[in-house]
Every structure is written in structure tokens, then in C-alpha cells.
Amino acid sequence: xxxxxxxRPARPALVRLRRPGFAGFRLMIYVGTIGIGTxxxxxxxxxxxxxxxxxVPSIYCPSPACGxxxxxxxVPSSPTEKSTIxxxxxxxxxxxxxxxxxxYGSGRMSGIIWNLIAVSQGFGLSMVEPGYxxxxxxxxxxxxxxxxxxxxxxxxxxxxxxWEQNLISENVFAFYLSREMKEGSTVMLGGVxxxxxxxxxxxxxxxxxxxxxxxxxxxDSISMNGKVVAYHGGCxxxxxxxxxxxLGPQRDIRNIxxxxxxxxxxxxxxxxxxxxxxxxxxLVFTINRVNYSVSxxxxxxxxxxxxxxxxxxxxxxxxxxxxxxxTRGDVFLRLYFSVFDRGNNRVGLATAV
Length: 353
What we know:
The chain has helices spanning 158-164, 250-259, 296-299, 330-333; strands at 13-16, 31-36, 41-48, 54-57, 93-103, 108-116, 121-128, 141-144, 172-176, 186-189, 197-205, 216-219, 221-224, 227-230, 235-239, 246-248, 263-266, 269-273, 283-287, 290-294, 300-302, 308-311, 313-315, 326-328, 336-341, 346-352. By secondary structure, the protein is mainly beta. The chain has two domains: 13-189, Beta Barrel (Cathepsin D, subunit A, domain 1); 194-352, Acid Proteases (Cathepsin D, subunit A, domain 1, Beta Barrel). The strands form five sheets. A seven-stranded mixed beta sheet has the order 2-3-8-4-7-6-5, with helices on one face. The chain has a six-stranded antiparallel beta sheet with strand order 1-10-9-25-26-11, with no helix packed on it. The longest helix is centred in the last third of the chain and has 10 residues, at 250-259. The chain is globular, with a radius of gyration of 21 Å.
């Protein structure tokens, strides 16, 4: 006899997020704590709408990002100390012996897929985290939240498991990301807490061609002082909570920096005198006929030198052509409460409190 079907809960599950310190603004993202296994082993993971797979570092990983040679692991009980999972300590782990390989804009991971038999949730145990991208982070792993088509084949993503097993009330999740280093950031699984935004929630459809991958939307234009500076004729943008910056095609970003009279110091580093911040124009993103403003206080950050501000706009190395999508990271998402509606293939945006 099949077990009775679980009733869906009436309220969304809230996961409190925090924004720990990182070596480099690119890696300043919001993380929360999850438990894996029986008994649970706790891990700090980035809740990422730009990738789908769930993975954490394992005791079998010799890379600096996993092992004892990670800088913060030399300090006992450090707030940035990393954790590695030991599958031998859980009664609900099963090794599938299937490989998992994930590549990100910064960093990559290779590992083995394991299953939690209690809830049939597949996840990755990293065996190799090459390079130093993940060495510079103080989170353990990543919990991805896009569409299943972006993830490892044959693995049901974490959010889909919650929905299929009636563990959440609605097929949606939402993010409230606090500004600066303030507490209160939250990801809501299975519903929306309307107290986190003001005004109306504006809905934006996810185009049919992208529904099985990123949370990608159509943007009409970007303007400054009423003049279009990017997205002539419309373009695509990805909403990515795992990215700190606003990324776009090199041509568009250079054009905006030119308007701001910014100076390129080295590589992608662009500086602007902070004295000019209060007089600089807003970046206005027009999406589905609604304007979303990003002020200079959001697209600039304080530099290391006195009166020097650094641009939070950057370009992707292979994004010269206009057709390349932008990536809206936390610079944008801190200003606007975001709802990701899998049931209706749409994204909702409203002004965050």
C-alpha cells in the first residue's frame, strides 16, 4: 500500500541568508545553512539562481578550496572555516558512482553524485575544485535554483524535489537581499512574504526558448538621463543571485563607463571619483514597459583609495556582441524583491523595503 500523500504546508519556508566577508567583490554573495544526511551534516551554501546543481565539498577532495590548506581552515572555529562532508557518517547516503562536472563563470567543480535515500535527493560530493576561485570564498558549496535543464542530467534539482514531494505550498521561491552588510536577507521557498516589498509586484514572462535553463527575461532598454545607452531594440538578461556585479556586453559597459567619465586602472577595474557620485545619473532598466532605476550609490562601491569609487559594472570576456545576455547580479537584486514562479514561468519584481 502506497503511503498517504503529504499535504502541502500553508506557509513558505524561510531560510535566513548572510553575507560573509570575501576576498574580492565578485565573490560577495549571500549564503545560508543546510543540513545533509542522517544525522545532518551542516554546510554553508550559496543559493544561486544562475546554476542548478547542489554540491558540497567532500573529505576526498584534495584541492586547496576543500582541504586543510584553505587559509581560514588554519584558524580553529573561524567564522569562515569550511566544512567537508563525510558520507561514511550518514545512514541515508548512497553512492551512485556517476560523475558530476559543473563549470561556473568563476571556478569549476568535479565530483561524484550521491543520493539521500530519505527524500531521493541527488547531490554532488566534490572530488576536485581546481584553481583558486573557490579558495577565495567562505561558503562550502552551492545550491542551484534555475530550471532542471541547466543541471546534471538525471538529477532532480533541490527545489523540484520540494515541490514533487509536497514539501512546499506553491511552485515559487523569492529573494530579499539586504543592502550593504545589514542582516535580514531571506530566501522564501514555496511562497511569498509580501512584507518584504512595497508597491506592486510586476510580472515578467520567461521566454519559451529559455524555460529549461536560466531565469532569463527580455529587457527593452537601458537609459541614462532619458537617452538609451544599451539594449537598442531589446535584449536578454539573466537574474543571478550568485553574481555580485552587473555584467553585460563589453561594448555596452564601455559606453556607460565613457558617459560616467570613468578611468580604467587595470584589467576590468574602473574607477570614478566618489565626489561625483551624488550627481551621476541613474541607470534605468526598462523591462516589460516598467522602469527599474539603479542609482550611482548602487552601481559604485568604495575603493581602497580616498575619494576613489569602483564601478560595479563589468563585461564578460566573450560578450562583445549585442546579442549576448546581461547578468543582473546582487547590485540589481538588492534593490528589487524578486519572485521566481516556476508554475507560471515568470519573474516578479517589486521595490524592496
